[in-house]
Design a protein that fits this description.
The complex is a heterodimer of chains A (about 110) and B (about 120). By secondary structure, chain A is mainly β. Chain A has no helices and 9 strands. In chain B, a hairpin with a 5-residue loop joins strand 7 and strand 8. Classes of the chains: A mainly beta (about 110), B mainly beta (about 120).
Chain lengths: ~110, ~120
């Protein structure tokens, strides 16, 4: 599986935007970029995914670099409820090993009131 | 719609015993995956079922097994429990399980403590 690299932790203030980076320099042309987050005492929650173009949904935005070797998850206005571990995951779109999610250590986001 | 339901939420077992955990996926989802989460190893894939068949298995010993029923509900079983099996066990459901442009829905997990 292609590898992703994320900072161990980040801090933000409430109601400010948060940019969570992810590097995936060995990404293949068929890999989709997925983001999940895990709130305390809960299972992971799907946030957003993309292939080449930037994506927006009600939870967040995903900005993908032109060379696709990095991406950024953007929370437009952080709330205390956004405090979680955020995982950046690549999913094989070629039909190979995309039956599972390979989690790294993720980024622990702390949101200060 | 109802989410992924895992039962029980908490479980305490003794070394050497066996345990069965249950997962009810979202209605219409036919793929069910299981993950183990520990502080040391993080989230690791156990196995995945689709239409009552195990399609894929992670790198876990044979003491870990599972099955899926015709209504897509799944159970996982751990026999001869060891202290190291203490973990949060998570179930995830998906329509078909292999769609790269579709997200998984996870349950809240079963917290297993082996004493």
């Amino acid at each position: 599986d292609a590898k992703t690299t994320q900072p161990n932790s980040m801090e933000s203030n409430e109601e400010e935007p948060v940019h969570l980076p992810c590097n995936h320099s060995t990404i293949s042309g068929t890999d989709y970029i997925h983001w999940y987050r895990q709130l305390p005492s809960q299972g992971p929650e799907y946030v957003i995914h993309g292939l080449t173009s930037n994506v927006n949904n009600r939870m967040a935005s995903l900005a993908i670099a032109e060379d696709r070797k990095s991406s950024t998850l953007i929370l437009h206005r952080a709330t205390l409820r956004d405090a979680a571990v955020y995982y950046c995951i690549l999913r094989d779109g070629s039909g190979g090993s995309n039956y599972k999610l390979t989690f790294g250590k993720g980024t622990l986001l702390t949101v200060n009131p | 719609k109802a989410g992924v339901t895992q039962t029980p939420r908490y479980l305490i077992k003794t070394r050497g015993q066996q345990v069965t955990l249950s997962c009810s996926p979202i209605s219409g989802h036919r793929s069910v995956s299981w993950y183990q989460q520990t502080p040391g190893q993080g989230l690791q894939f156990l196995f995945e079922y689709f239409s009552e068949t195990q399609r894929n298995k992670g790198n876990f010993p044979g003491r870990f097994s599972g099955r899926q029923f015709s209504n897509s509900r799944s159970e996982m079983n751990v026999s001869t429990l060891e202290l190291g099996d203490s973990a949060l066990y998570l179930c995830a459901s998906s329509l078909q399980g292999r769609e790269p442009n579709y997200g998984y829905t996870f349950g809240s997990g079963t917290r297993l403590t082996v004493v």
